[in-house]
Amino acid sequence: MLHTIKPDEYGPLGAPMANAVQACVHCGFCLAACPTYQEFGQEMDSPRGRIMLMKQVLEHDLPWAAAQPHVDRCLGCLACEPACPSGVAYRDLLSPFRSVAQEQAKFVRTPGEKLRRWLVAATIPFPARFRLALRGASLGRLLGPLVPQAWRTMLDLAPAAVPPAVKLPRVTPAQGEWRARVALLAGCAQQVLDPDINLATIEVLARNGVEVIVPDAQGCCGGLAWHTGDRRAAQAFARRNLDAFPADVDAILTNAAGCGSAMHEYHLILRGTADETRAEAWRKRVADVSVFLARLGLRERPHNRGRVQKVAYHDACHLANAQGVREEPRELLRAVPGLELCEVANAHLCCGSAGTYNLDQPATAASLGAQKAAAVTATGAEVVASGNIGCLTQIRAHLEKTGSPVRVRHTMQVLRDAYRT
Predict the structure, then answer these.
(1) How far apart are CA 241 and CA 278, in angstroms?
(2) N or C: at which end does the chain have fewer Cβ atoms within 10 angstroms?
(3) Which pTM was predicted?
(4) Are residues 290 and 306 in the same domain?
(5) Could you say which of 74, 103, 132 is where a domain stops?
(6) At 4, phi and psi to the nearest 5?
(7) How far is residue 236 from each of residues 40, 53, 129, 241, 270, measured CA to CA in Å?
(8) Tell me: the pLDDT tens digits for 61-101?
């Protein structure tokens, strides 16, 4: 018997999910692009397979438990979207499906999983708490086998040292002739793991005539909550940012691919609420810093009076796939005199970070991270650059495991360093 999804049954997220399912023609072009299909070799761990599973669940032909392990294993990297000739909006299905599953308590979690997810949700989106948690990780390492297995992955991924906290200026004036005024999302994890990225971003923008505002009242973009199915938390974060960012700016900028992707989905996160229209207008003002700078044009050419540098560029999934941003970061890097830009093999495959994926699916994330580190090393580059803190953290960890000397930098840090030399 042929069934169809009843959108009204699943509230405001029902229609986007139904549309995504109906758009899939099961051609299989997504299989070659999917990292988990490469890892497991199973149809159910491909986008096409997951779409069929979710369709059957939503039509009540399959229990939620049958789909859960395969939906959990999805990175949400969206490599399937640019590979799809039918234009399936997979993002309109995956996160809403996880949200419905959580709201209706359809997925079964062990007590350890529930605790780990709670700890992540209660710490990472809040810089002060996250910094404190990372400092406490050193104590956890001393306890060794006494630490529950569910927490050991978190300890393994925690950096040995946490950089000092940095207070970003609320307003940084443009240097020279004023060209634009922007507001910058500072991010949450990035402020703790590598606060220099924001400093580099602000300096590069200011050097190019851009006034930078860092709103005090801003918070986490909500991406971590949204991609794990916690729509209520994601909505709270989204509303906070809608209120915090000023209207009198030329753009709202982010230097983290995952944050930019999440902010572009505010209209979906807030679908069916009084803030949906406001979110739709707001997200159209959001841009990655590389896109904004490439369009504006570098007024001051980087100097880079040091030696020639070979740089590999890693495409963050939520920059390349979710936002279609590939050429702009490369264009900026090519503007650095003497910099040799090289490509990473199998660039379309995710590095395994994917928000909290390396905590929820550590084995798969480790495999993907090791493959990405090997591909980066094979380029012979001295530096690998990217535009997402999760990718930078994941790649750095796996490069360090192999003893690789390749340094990991954000695109804005490479530019800032070139201006200073």
Answers:
(1) 11
(2) N
(3) 0.93
(4) no
(5) 103
(6) -135, 155
(7) 36, 30, 18, 9, 9
(8) 999 999 999 999 999 999 999 999 999 999 999 999 999 99
